[in-house]
């Protein structure tokens, strides 16, 4: 009798955090293999099935380091589907600037750069992985994530509430002057609210400070605004679950991403947690200047 084994296939761009991700799952007792050639995936699945229950969850990193073997990944994923193996594909990515910085900091060569620049290698890899990204079940953009935040996100996606609601709600705050995050489903503009940036004693603080929270939320339209956003998110959540979405990303932005958007993101998080949803919050530009 075939054992029910859950497989997580970790892939994505070089430097985007695949090694850290598999360590998180390894710490959670996943059987982990880094850089497994996709051609060996069917055989690996059969070996797991013969483990008599010793291997119940496995995480495998498969990326362009596999060279020619990597081209067989779609065929191997089809094998898992045809044989009813439970599996999900997690794709990790980051901005070009972030990836370049990470390669320079670690003094590593990009596997596809050859004698060209790091950026050339990144561009080639994005092109090669474009179809795989479209097929991914979950995507994590690690551009603005600290290692601790990436760990939290992986744990929220794969290690919590596995028998309950699968949807994860990610609430982001950001600054419009640094660009709208690419990995979001809904964006809400908070710039119409009074800005603490122009109050000298409040300017050095951030939206997690009590004085900033009180300043922003004493405005009736701020409370009305977050209430309306919360109601809309509550309306959308069951629709997303019905469609099989694994996460819903809500972004709230102000000018710099330091004050108003942080307060409203925290408030939305608190309301969703009180309603017993799975939520994480990220403040992408909280250390920036501006409100």
How would you characterize the overall build of this protein?
The chain is α/β, with parallel strands linked by helices and 291 residues long. The protein folds into two domains: 6-158, 3-Layer(aba) Sandwich (Rossmann fold), CATH 3.40.50; 168-283, no CATH class. It is built from nine helices and nine strands. Strands 2-3-1-4-5 form a five-stranded parallel β-sheet, sandwiched between helices. Helix 4 (96-106) packs across helix 5 (118-135). It is globular.
In brief, what are we looking at here?
The chain has 291 residues and is of the alpha/beta class. The chain contains nine helices and nine strands.
* Separate helix tally: 9
How far the N terminus sits from the C terminus, by CA atoms, comes to 60 Å
Mean pLDDT: 88
Give the CATH level 1 class of the largest domain.
Answer: Alpha Beta
Side by side, the strands of the main sheet go 2-3-1-4-5
**Considering DSSP H and I runs of 4 or more, what fraction of the residues is helical?**
25-40%
CATH topology of the largest domain: Rossmann fold
User: How many extended strands?
Assistant: 9
Order of helices and strands: EHEHEHEHHEHEEHHEHE
**Tally of structural domains:** 2
Radius of gyration: 21 Å
CATH-level-4 superfamily name of the largest domain? P-loop containing nucleotide triphosphate hydrolases
